[in-house]
Design goal:
globular; single chain; mainly alpha
Length: 235
Amino acid sequence: MLFRSALSIAATVQKQKPKEPSGYLLEGNIYATQKAWTNAIAAYRNGLRQFASPELAARLHGALLAADKMSDADKHATTWLKEHPKDAAFRMYLGDVATTRKNYAQAATHYQSALTLQPNNALTLNNLAWALWQTKSPKAIEYAEKANQIAPNQPAFMDTLAVLLADKGQNDKAIEMLRSAMKLAPQAANIQLNLAKVLISAGKKTEARQELDALTKLGDKFSQQAEVAQLLKSL
């Protein structure tokens, strides 16, 4: 009943806002929540026939992937980028997809393309730095530092740079940065976990245990409890 009502609302939005893609996004998203990928794909495609929306393009790509239509997803991405070569948002999306799949070389390629279009986008710089670090590229830290210069005091960007600094043996600087990030985002468990790891690398096991114990108390609220437990055993 709720499903049908939601679809009815989506149809109403399409009629009331004929010059906006929101109704088609809503329809596709409703089907996607039900994993009705064929219908979701149809809704997104219908919207794209009328609106050159990067969000619709990304949603369609995601639905095609979810439906195991890899070749269709690749074809769609290639066509979209050919027709919209300056769409940095879609390139970022593709980079995020590749990162999730741990295809970091491909992710770096997409992020680099997005960065060419938006050279001072801190998020792109941060994500590119992370992908390059995963591929052992020496340029990773350069991009992470630039991201923090453009957008200072952003915990996620500070976290990335700190991890890269620690990887180069600059543990004290990394710890200082991670502690600063924690002050800005005290509930950021992932940052706290990275802090614990760097503290361990620096031989500061007592301090590391304090961070890990705090993470343990989060229970199911933090999905990486297995790693936390493993690190505690190593102390």
